Predict the structure.
Amino acid sequence: MDTITGQLLSFIEKSPTCFHAVATMKEEFLKNGFTELKENEKWSIQQGGQYFVTRNGSSLIAFTIPKEKMKGIRIMASHSDSPCFKIKENPEIEAEGYYIKLNIEKYGGMLCAPWFDRPLSVAGRVIVRDEKTGALRPILINIDRDLLVIPSLAIHMNRDVNDGYKYNVQKDMLPLYGEIASKDSFMKLIAENAGVREEAVLGHDIFLYNRQKGCVWGAAEEFLSSGRLDDLQCAFSSMKGFLEGKKKQYMAVHCVLDNEEVGSGTKQGAASTFLYDTITRAHLAMGYTKEDYLIHLADSFMVSADNAHAVHPNYTDKADPVNRPYLNGGIVVKFNANQKYCTDGISAAVFRDICEKAGVPVQTFVNRSDMAGGSTLGNISNTQVALNTVDIGLPQLAMHSPYETAGVKDTEYLVKAARVLFS
Ligand code: CO
């Protein structure tokens, strides 16, 4: 397995939820000598300094201040969340007085079918009350074993299922947790994993995740599959390129935001002030004025990095007739006339120039004109911090499945492009 793919898969494995993705990045930035800033403390920022700040434990912005006079800002933005199922309050439901299943609801728009008949577990955060001080604090949890399965209904009991089936999450998709002897043990298990008593857990954000580890496959080992490639493949590549870039004349910003899959409209999402607050606070702490910030912003560039659809070998008619991205074909620039993607002639040209300097191939994505496409965080973020932006992504198949597929070469292409952006 080539090293970048190995690093990517281990990054994803350590990051079963958005909270863990932020913790994984935090660890990496501390290892690389970055200083953590807290939003509720005064910031002290130095020329040549490297910092990061988190919001809600699920969004992270890392930035560096150039040693030389600042010319502008370079940003790469991606997202930390992926579609999955969230555990509801009062999670246990009895069935037949014999089984215990868990009550779940959808987070984001996922493909439902691939969640069936595979080992799953839960991870997330709990908010606990410290028994000595009474203070509330978050603790990350991950039940690191095969814990749950959502069993399919046998073909004999629904002969028509292969002609198409409309999944009802409340009825069809509740995961089996145990037999009745395990009643009332789920929250105990969670508390135990957090190292506290069950009574100390006052709140939780717990999600299902696929236990199947990422792998490399194909005739020439050219493909990889894993959960959460959308968008941890971009978050990982952005982080790596950011750390390796020279970051000489520009404020460099690696930005990974939560809640893209549910429209970004949260305090830590792309529609929030998190990016604006971070950049302006860094400016004010450096002694710059609001006008300096606006001057810098006018000479800035953002890459909004969120995975893209490759042409599917079984559904070749679903793609535009000529803009047809393939796995391992390079970074995909996304276009949309209605500006669901921010790319325009200028930002496309700037990004193509970056990729040429980085020596990496570029492909183009545009929806078929008779199909509505997805959306992403670039145009939403631009309503808070307005700057030249290009929407790009790495080509993948099975987007929003708990086991997605990508090409082994493309991660490195984005790392190289990010390195040039940040140099
Ligand atoms: Co995405």
Remarks:
- The longest helix spans residues 229-244.
- The mean pLDDT is 97.
- The two ends are 28 Å apart (CA to CA).
